[in-house]
């Protein structure tokens, strides 16, 4: 039971991790999805879905994002430690590329969920954090210290739409880096662009795994053609880095 409900404190499997799926006895009972009220309430956070106030961050979420970002930034520092002394500006560039790949992916999930009217916050995950730390010494880099948790009864295709925007964001970043790589004459910029393509395509492919708690499983249930299109795009970018 790897998921702990932030409302009632109970531990649940992936199938029942959302509060509406396990008859939650905590703050969730006061959300719009169970009482018809217009505000979502959680410890330390208040959010009212409206056109003028869709985006919000709690102190706990900001803390978890900061920890997750710090772990991500540590990956290039650990794996390319020699660059910190020999080429510090290149190292700073790598840190920025890694950080943007992670933070924009999570923001895409969060902002789409809030745009659709759901409560959404990033939370650290013990298993994901452990995998990310293990990737320090592994040739395969995994960036998954946590995920965006969503509260509210899902409507229609919303789950698929919320899930797909994360990988799409990484693919979009990968394409931008690809264009930079094709047109730049600077070896410094080319190095950053190559790493940008690699890390964003890797992150997209990892999240598109079509089973378990990954985005890919939710996208597959929603639209198999959409999953295939996004997966092939990410795969093409990834393969390009090794040509």
The stretches of 5 or more residues where confidence is low (pLDDT under 50) are 28-53
Rounded to an integer in angstroms, the radius of gyration calculated over CA atoms is 19 Å
Share of residues in strands = 5-15%
Percent helix among the residues?
Answer: 55-70%
Mean pLDDT: 80
Order of helices and strands: EEHEEHHHEHEHHHH
How can the largest sheet be summarized?
2 strands, antiparallel
The tally of helices reads: 9
Number of strands: 6
What count of structural domains?
1
Strand order in space, largest sheet: 1-2
Taken from the alpha-carbon principal axes, the silhouette is globular
Identify the quaternary structure here.
single chain
Brief digest:
This protein is mainly alpha-helical.
Fold and architecture overview:
The protein has one domain. A hairpin with a 6-residue loop joins β1 and β2. Residues 28-53 have low confidence and may be disordered. α7 runs antiparallel to α9. The protein has nine helices and six strands; from the N terminus they run ββαββαααβαβαααα. By secondary structure, the protein is mostly helical. It is globular, with a radius of gyration of 19 Å.
